[in-house]
Amino acid sequence: MIYLDNAATTRPHPDVVAAMEKTLTVAFGNPSSAHGLGMEAYRLVEEARKRIALTLGVERQELIFTSGGTEANNLALLGTAQNAPPKRRRILTLAIEHDSVLQPLAHLERHGFAVEMIPLHPDGRFRPEGLRALLTPDVFLVSMGLVNNEVGTWQDVETAGQILQEVEPKPLFHIDAIQAWGKVSLRPAFRYGDLVSLSGHKIHGPKGVGVLWKRPGVVLTPLLFGGGQEAGLRSGTENVPGILGLGKAAELLTEVESRDEDLLARKMILWEETQKHLGDRAAVNGPSPEEGAPHILNISVAGMGGSVLVEALSQKGVLLSTGSACSTRHMQSGRVHRALGLPPERGASALRLSLSRDTAVEDLKEAARILGETVRELGPIMRRRR
Ligand SMILES: Cc1ncc(COP(=O)(O)O)c(C=O)c1O
């Protein structure tokens, strides 16, 4: 099997699995229990929080554990919007954001907020002059992904953050850094953002656990009420195995100066090999391979249906996807491509190949060879269908 769907999820690291197993077998107490087993679980959770905070360069009391990236995004957006003054009900975002950002914003729109899209360059980067033109004191919140999950656009959140400082009162700045963690530096996100969302399963950690960083002073109303865990901001018995797995996964990440250059070098090999086998039938969607995030390559193969190719490749052991994992099953793929102004056939024939630090160069070469072979095999069938 050649696994090239790391933007959907990554294989948990063996040390992550071991850390989780301990809390499922031995240290299984409830962190809220007053006895020894509970106190041990509490200690483990707080130790993981401390470790994650240390790797991120933030304070541990600024972290809120959630059930994943989706909840972190929902909590950031819905939890702050509830406190928006009546005269500040505009929200700015990008049309290429993940559904876990766009859907809560659509919900807010149904409840009296105006949600507007910041204009984009064809590669998905926001246009600074477009942001400036939309920015007035009635904007309460701006939400932007640091790395786009489908085409890998890497946003300059530093410039965005500086532009937001030009208006008074400054809008809150939420940054979805879920696809960025471990791949590009998060420093600008914590410097300029007010809320930053992260998820465990994109960094070789477990699924169903995430974390929201909140700058001190940002007022957040919880979405879940109950036992008052996470300083009252996220009630519910802590996902102790998940949190420990997340802590271990964060600890195993190597510090990225700007972007993981080693990963980028491997992505460039994948692109060169793909061109070798497909020639100019393959076109890149979104940023050029050398400019985007180091782990995502989104291409379209002329005359081919993306889902047909994904299925054929899966049968040969090459696993990738047409787009966002959560939207492909619901046949919504192509939204991001449309937002970039690409013709519908580019979205319909899109393939997302995504790498991780575990991806071997030989596998990338082999995947490109199999891709070329599969396109040649399917070509006559696709032509007959049309
Ligand atoms: C950019 C982005 N935001 C949010 C999410 C949702 O995170 P989770 O799967 O942890 O709910 C994902 C995962 O697909 C993502 O790629």
Structure characterization notes:
With 386 residues, the chain is α/β, with parallel strands linked by helices. The protein folds into two domains: 2-9 and 258-385, Aspartate Aminotransferase, domain 1 (Alpha-Beta Complex), CATH 3.90.1150.10; 14-252, Type I PLP-dependent aspartate aminotransferase-like (Major domain) (Aspartate Aminotransferase, domain 2, 3-Layer(aba) Sandwich), CATH 3.40.640. It contains 14 helices and twelve strands. It has helices at residues 14-25, 36-56, 69-81, 99-109, 128-134, 157-164, 187-192, 240-252, 261-278, 306-315, 325-328, 335-339, 344-348, 361-385; strands at 2-3, 63-66, 90-93, 114-117, 139-145, 172-176, 195-199, 210-214, 282-284, 296-301, 318-319, 350-354. The chain has a seven-stranded mixed beta sheet, with helices on both faces. Strands 9-10-12 form a three-stranded antiparallel beta sheet. A two-stranded parallel sheet has the order 1-11. Helix 6 links the parallel strand 5 (139-145) and strand 6 (172-176). Helix 2 (36-56) runs parallel beside helix 8, helix 3 (69-81) runs parallel beside helix 4 and helix 9 packs parallel to helix 14. The protein is globular and about 65 Å long. The two termini are 31 Å apart. Pyridoxal-5'-phosphate (PLP) binds next to helix 3. Residues 68-70, 73, 98, 100, 145, 149, 176, 178-179, 199, 201, 210, 325 line the site of pyridoxal-5'-phosphate (PLP).
- The parts where pLDDT drops under 50 for at least 5 residues are none
Proportion of residues in β-strands = 5-15%
* CATH H-level superfamily of the largest domain: Type I PLP-dependent aspartate aminotransferase-like (Major domain)
Q: What is the residue-mean pLDDT, rounded to a whole number?
A: 95
Say how many strands there are: 12
Strand order of the largest sheet: 2-8-7-6-5-3-4
CATH fold annotation of the largest domain: Aspartate Aminotransferase, domain 2
> Main β-sheet: number of strands, strand sense, barrel status?
7 strands, mixed
Give the ligands present.
pyridoxal-5'-phosphate
Counting structural domains, the number is 2
CATH class term of the largest domain: Alpha Beta
Query: H/E order of the elements?
Result: EHHEHEHEHEHEHEEHHEEHEHHHEH
Helical fraction equals: 40-55%
Q: What's the end-to-end separation, in Å?
A: 31 Å
- DSSP helical segment count: 14
Structural class of the helix and strand makeup?
alpha/beta
Radius of gyration, whole Å: 21 Å
Anisotropy-based shape: globular
| CATH architectural arrangement of the largest domain | 3-Layer(aba) Sandwich
